[in-house]
Amino acid sequence: MERIETRGLVLYNRNFREDDKLVKIFTEKAGKRMFFVKHASKSKLVVSIQPMTYADFIVKINEDGLSYIEDFHQVQAFKQINQDIFRLSYATYVLALADACLQDKVYDPALFAFLVKTLDLMEAGLDYEVLTNIFEIQLLGRFGVSLNFHECAICHRVGLPFDFSYRYAGLLCPQHYHQDERRLHLDPNVPYLIERFQAISFDELETISLKEEMKQKLRLFIDQIYEEYVGIHLKSKKFIDDLSSWGQIMKPRETGEEK
Ligand SMILES: [Zn+2]
Fold first, then answer.
1. What InterPro entries is this protein classified in (predicted)?
2. pTM for this one?
3. How far is the CA of 210 from the centre of ligand 1 (A)?
4. Distance 164 CA to ligand 1 centre (A)
5. Residues 178-219: tens digit of each pLDDT
6. Nearby residues of 25 by Cβ (< 8 Å), 6 or more positions away
């Protein structure tokens, strides 16, 4: 077994036998791994294995089976996220997506950094719905889905009020709308924003602000894309969908204009 020190983010834990736990941690240096924690309730490790805990871990990596946590320090808990059921449910979904798109043991420091940054920005109070959309769009490639939101699939012109077509698995410009009578009839701002989301930088993220109506259109389109091309159904996403149907009642009303 190899002993390493690495940043890591706890994805989830589950009970195993009487008082032991299995903990899935996305590590920066060794990808996602399953760790075995014996007598978890009495272990000093218990504070480090809660979902969404971000810490420096000293671990023993076992290539053929379960790995072990030796020690940890610099624990960062996402306090603001954990205090708000809306933020928490989106953050939980983002973790589940990162888990779903990556095989265990695969080194992916770029995804690790992107995931941690997304949580940091949710913690800092940025729009969790938009952050989630951006995360979903940038993850498409890891699900093996490559869609061109830049140009018309037929004439390759750019910068037009585009619509999306499943038949062409891409955009159609107004001149070629008629090529697919079942095109989605999107608000052209939707594909425009999706293209921006594909390559957005962390700095730009902090300046993005969208109206509620546009966010709903994005949510609907990204759901369609995931249904058609990714086909995963995560419990945490179902929870968000349920939350949005009755959650409006609970949401604190903002004064003045919608952001
Ligand atoms: Zn065209």
1. ARFGAP/RecO, DNA_rep/recomb_RecO_N, NA-bd_OB-fold, RecO, RecO_C
2. 0.91
3. 28
4. 12
5. 999 999 999 999 999 999 999 888 778 778 889 999 999 999
6. 8, 9, 10, 11, 32, 33, 35, 57, 59, 69
pLDDT tens digits along 26-75: 999 999 999 999 999 899 998 899 999 999 999 999 998 899 999 999 99
Comparing CA positions, the residue from 160, 218, 211, 220 lying closest to residue 193 is 218
Instruction: Bin 128: left if φ > 0, else alpha if -120 < ψ < 50, else beta.
Output: alpha
Number of neighbours of residue 231 by Cβ within 10 angstroms: 9
- Ligand 1: centre distance to CA 197 (Å): 22
Q: What spacing in Å lies between the alpha carbon of 146 and ligand 1's midpoint?
A: 19
CA of 196 from ligand 1 middle (Å) equals: 20
Q: Report the distance separating Cα 130 and Cα 122, nearest Å.
A: 10
110 Cβ contact partners less than 8 Å away, ≥ 6 residues apart: none
* 71 CA to centre of ligand 1 in angstroms: 58
- Length of the chain counted residue by residue: 259
205 Cα–ligand 1 center, Å: 30
Picking from 93, 115, 103, 100, the residue whose alpha carbon sits closest to that of residue 28 is 115
